[in-house]
């Protein structure tokens, strides 16, 4: 087992524990007197109206979709960047072509108003 | 003296100590990892306390007021007083909140920031040496975004949910320029390992790729959720955004997580673009390298605080337009030009390469300025009222009544 990753594994267990410790201490140190008005959710000081789970604007979905495309593109570009020295010039130009195609996709999404917040 | 030359002898000494207690070698190793992880996690958490004080003082001074100055000399004990207060607050859980997610969100938020630290090189031979450090950073950095969504969803509050949606849209939109800008140092150093990136910086990468550094810096500020991109905490708009329903230590964890994330962004910027732990004498004395890294990170953090005190908040559609229609294409263009030019200048020495790339960045910036000016011309002119354009109601006092005689 690579020692670096064992360390990160230990850290993955330890960091949430270290973050949870003050919260648990705070939970037991503070008073505990719940009553229904205190526990009510905050809505500018008025009684809550309706369910809390509001409708979902479709623009969020469009942004997430475009983000997904670009994120996958970039994950493919990382090995290309790391292996840059060993690549012939042709491969460099091919990587560039890949990026140009994605730039074209961005401009397409832009023109089709997929990146507008207000519909 | 030997400790100053090579701090890892502490690790060996501890290992011998554990073996001397009769533990098996694998258990001693595991215990060493736990001790190392505790040290690495506690350092930033203690430093956050100072950062909170510093930020409050600095923002106050920028706003022409004093900041905390009563608790202790110059208000230095203020964060301790804050921690004490938050520790003893009542732990209110809103009605019908999703208990498991509600508890998990602040833990995940702070843990997501702490988990960035194992990958960061702290000095020559100390600190992280992860092979895929840059990808690891991007992946783990998204845990905080996840935490925000969980917080907004579990609090059973419309405003928290709306705040969480907007925040997540902002954060994933700014992931793209960050990952693109991170690709430039990876390209220049031919490795994703942050130790290699630092080792390849005979000339700081900020000289070779200033635009990438700027894009990384701006997008990171948005990623952390600092002003001017702090819609998630917009006090005047949606009160406290996704953490409306959090009080006491849970809120403190979000708060500390945000400040620590901002400082970690400073550390990453220093590692990627400003030479990390490199400096005069840092090769011989690794602790001096740690000091240099801390100094550079603190200067970048100061710039982040400075920006916080100076800029108004950006509107959500401006924010998203800024990233998708400006930062992402710019980052792509910078990456393409850097890739081409690096292949062309591969034979030259480090300074020639850096200066050649600097010139290319300058040219890109000039082209961008021309394009921006063209965009400005095509937008509507700003509304300036002409005299007499809009009727203005004027107040005429009523006629004074004649005094009633008789």
Amount of beta strand of chain B: under 5%
**Backbone shape of chain B:** globular
Assigned CATH architecture of chain A: Up-down Bundle
| Strand order in the sheet with the most strands of chain B | 1-2
In N-to-C order, the SSE pattern of chain B is: HHHHHEEHHHHHHHHHH
The mean pLDDT of chain B is 86
Helix content of chain A: 55-70%
Q: What is the element layout, followed by pairings?
A:
The complex is a heterodimer of chains A (119) and B (406).
Chain A: H1 3-29, H2 58-82, H3 89-111
Chain B: H1 2-5, H2 9-20, H3 25-62, H4 78-87, H5 99-114, E1 121-123, E2 126-127, H6 133-154, H7 158-189, H8 194-199, H9 205-208, H10 210-224, H11 235-238, H12 249-273, H13 286-310, H14 316-344, H15 350-378
Helix pairs in contact in B: 2-3, 3-12, 3-13, 5-6, 5-12, 6-7, 7-10, 7-14, 10-12, 10-14, 12-13, 14-15
What is this entry, summarized?
The complex is a heterodimer of chains A (119) and B (406). Chain A is an all-alpha fold and 119 residues long. Chain A contains 3 helices and no strands.
Description:
The complex is a heterodimer of chains A (119) and B (406). Chain A has three helices and no strands. Chain A has 119 residues and is an all-alpha fold. With 406 residues, chain B is mostly helical. Chain B has one domain. The longest helix of chain B has 38 residues, at 25-62. Chain B is globular, with a radius of gyration of 26 Å. At the A-B interface, helix 1, helix 2 and helix 3 of A face helix 3, helix 5, helix 6, helix 7 and helix 12 of B.
Supply the key terms.
heterodimer, A: 119 residues, mainly alpha, Methane Monooxygenase Hydroxylase, Chain G, domain 1, 63% helix, flat, B: 406 residues, two-stranded antiparallel ribbon, 2 strands
């Amino acid at each position: 087992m690579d020692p670096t990753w064992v360390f990160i594994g230990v850290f993955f267990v330890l960091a949430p524990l270290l973050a949870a410790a003050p919260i648990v201490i705070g939970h037991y140190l503070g008073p505990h007197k719940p009553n229904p008005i205190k526990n009510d959710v905050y809505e500018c000081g008025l009684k809550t109206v309706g369910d809390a789970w509001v409708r979902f604007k479709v623009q969020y979905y469009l942004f997430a979709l475009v983000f997904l495309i670009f994120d996958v593109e970039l994950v493919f570009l990382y090995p290309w960047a790391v292996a840059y020295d060993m690549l012939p010039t042709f491969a460099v130009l091919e990587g560039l072509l890949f990026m140009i195609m994605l730039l074209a996709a961005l401009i397409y999404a832009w023109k089709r108003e997929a990146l507008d917040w207000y519909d | 003296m030997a400790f100053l030359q090579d701090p890892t002898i502490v690790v060996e000494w501890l290992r011998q100590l554990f073996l001397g207690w009769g533990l098996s070698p694998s258990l001693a190793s595991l215990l060493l990892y736990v001790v190392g992880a505790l040290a690495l996690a506690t350092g930033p958490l203690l430093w956050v306390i100072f950062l909170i004080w510093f930020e409050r003082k600095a923002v106050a001074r920028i706003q022409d007021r004093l900041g905390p100055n009563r608790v202790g000399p110059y208000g230095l004990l203020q964060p301790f007083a804050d921690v004490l207060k938050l520790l003893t607050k009542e732990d209110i859980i809103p009605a019908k909140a999703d208990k498991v997610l509600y508890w998990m969100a602040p833990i995940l938020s702070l843990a997501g920031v702490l988990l960035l630290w194992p990958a960061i090189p702290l000095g020559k031979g100390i600190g992280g040496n992860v092979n895929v450090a840059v990808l690891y950073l991007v992946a783990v950095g998204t845990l905080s975004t996840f935490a925000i969504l969980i917080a907004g969803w579990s609090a059973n509050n419309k405003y928290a949910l709306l705040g969480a949606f907007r925040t997540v849209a902002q954060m994933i939109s700014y992931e793209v320029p960050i990952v693109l800008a991170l690709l430039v140092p990876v390209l220049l150093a031919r490795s994703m390992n942050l130790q290699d990136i630092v080792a390849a910086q005979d000339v700081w990468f900020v000289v070779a790729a200033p635009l990438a550094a700027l894009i990384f810096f701006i997008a990171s500020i948005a990623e952390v959720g600092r002003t001017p991109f702090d819609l998630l905490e917009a006090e005047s708009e949606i009160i406290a955004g996704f953490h409306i329903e959090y009080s006491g230590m849970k809120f403190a964890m979000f708060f500390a997580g945000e400040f620590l994330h901002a400082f970690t962004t400073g550390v990453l910027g220093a590692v990627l673009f400003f030479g990390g732990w490199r400096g005069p004498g840092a090769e011989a004395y690794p602790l001096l390298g740690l000091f240099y890294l801390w100094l550079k990170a603190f200067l970048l953090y100061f710039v982040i605080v400075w920006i916080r005190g100076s800029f108004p908040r950006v509107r959500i559609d401006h924010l998203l337009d800024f990233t998708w229609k400006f930062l992402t294409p710019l980052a792509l263009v910078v990456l393409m030009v850097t890739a081409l030019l690096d292949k062309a200048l591969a034979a030259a020495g480090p300074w020639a390469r850096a200066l050649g790339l600097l010139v290319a960045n300058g040219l890109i910036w000039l082209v961008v300025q021309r394009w921006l000016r063209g965009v400005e011309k095509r937008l509507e002119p700003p509304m300036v009222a002409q005299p007499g354009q809009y009727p203005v109601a004027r107040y005429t006092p009523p006629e004074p009544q004649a005094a009633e005689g008789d």
